[in-house]
Amino acid sequence: MDVVIRPAEPGEYGTLGEITAQAFLRDGLLDFSDSDAYLDELRDVGKQAAAAEVLVAVADGTVLGGVTFVAPGGPLAEIAGPGEAEMRMLAVAPAARRRGAGEALVRACVERARAAGCLRLVLSTQRTMHAAHRIYERLGFVRVPERDWNPLPDADDTVLLAYALTL
Fold first, then answer.
1. CB 23: neighbour CB atoms within 10 A?
2. CA-CA distance, 17 to 143, in Å (whole number)?
3. What is the spatial distance between Cα 6 and Cα 105, in angstroms, rounded to a whole number?
4. Per-residue confidence (pLDDT) for residue 155, from 0 to 100
5. pTM of the predicted structure, to 2 decimals
6. Residue 6 buriedness (CB in 10 A; 0-12 / 13-18 / 19+)
7. Alpha-carbon distance 94 to 16, whole Å?
8. Which residues pair with 63 in a beta bridge?
9. How far apart are CA 38 and CA 16, in angstroms?
10. What is the pLDDT of residue 149?
C-alpha cells in the first residue's frame, strides 16, 4: 500500500475530523470522553486549515489520517517559540494503523519545517501515546520536559509531554 501525504482538500475535512475525534476517543485521550469540548476542535478541520496546513495520509483514495502543521508564529501554536514550527493533532484511523501513515505524516512535517528554515519542530503528546512516542524517538525527537504543560490547570493528570527535533 502506497501512502501519499498531501494537503487536505475541503471535501475531506469532515472525514479527517471524524477520524481524529474517533482516534482520540478510542484511545482514551480525552478527559471527558464524548462530552469533552476538545472534540469540537478535533472535528473542525476547516478551522485548522484556515490557520495552518492540514495534511492527510491517503492510500487507494481513502483518507487514513492527518496532522496539522503550524508554521512559525502560526495562531495554532501552543508551545512553539521563535524559529520553531509545531505539529498538532496527529491521528490515524485505528483500522489503518501500523501501515506507516503516522510516520509519513510526521516526516512530512519535518520536511516542511526544514523547508521553512526552522530551528526546531516541536509537539505536545500525552503520556499514554506510546506508539506515537516510538515514532517521534525513531525520527530523532527528544523529550524536553522543561516545556511540558497542562492545558487544563484544574486537572493535575492532564500534563502534556513536549518533544522537539532540532533541524
1. 20
2. 28
3. 9
4. 61
5. 0.91
6. exposed
7. 13
8. 58
9. 15
10. 81
